[in-house]
């Protein structure tokens, strides 16, 4: 069992996301991460779907997705692809620990986007492991709130989803 990342081009219209999510639900597959956004063509959206399973599960998911009318193309991204996620985390802070929290953020090339008398909000971009490492170091200070975007990914080099159909 391993993590798989799918890039899926779909028609950008109402109900497409619901149909894709419903397919996973009906088949009993869990979505680890799902991000959707408009592409350079406003009529097409790109979904980045992260799933965990063996090759048979992945094959079944790809076959079922391919049957949906709104799906234009599906591509399993290689392990070497560029994967990123954005994290916003609000941490309890005071005058005594504020500089230590800012130092942790800078070590992870994150940036402070808001400071109040009792909190610091940090924005970080990176791999799943990098963001989890940052959270592990911030946890002792007290994480008040957390939001993650989910995975976005692109193949390295000149290869694109649109010309891999």
Could you explain how this protein is built, in words?
The structure is a single chain. This protein has 165 residues and is an alpha+beta fold. The longest helix has 12 residues, at 16-27. The protein has two domains: 2-76, ACT domain (Alpha-Beta Plaits), CATH 3.30.70.260; 82-152, ACT-like. Chain A, domain 2 (Alpha-Beta Plaits, 2-Layer Sandwich), CATH 3.30.70. The chain has four helices and nine strands; from the N terminus they run E-H-E-E-H-E-E-H-E-E-H-E-E. The chain has helices at 16-27, 55-66, 98-107, 128-138, and strands at 2-11, 31-38, 44-53, 71-76, 82-92, 111-115, 119-126, 143-148, 152-154. Helices cover 27% and strands 41% of the residues.
Task: Summarize the helices and strands and which ones pair or pack.
Blueprint: E1 2-11, H1 16-27, E2 31-38, E3 44-53, H2 55-66, E4 71-76, E5 82-92, H3 98-107, E6 111-115, E7 119-126, H4 128-138, E8 143-148, E9 152-154
Antiparallel strand pairs: 1-3, 1-4, 2-3, 5-7, 5-8, 5-9, 6-7
Q: What is the CATH architecture descriptor of the largest domain?
A: 2-Layer Sandwich
Provide the low-confidence segments as ranges: none
Tally of strands: 9
Supply the CATH class of the largest domain: Alpha Beta
Order of helices and strands: EHEEHEEHEEHEE
Number of domains: 2
CATH fold description of the largest domain: Alpha-Beta Plaits
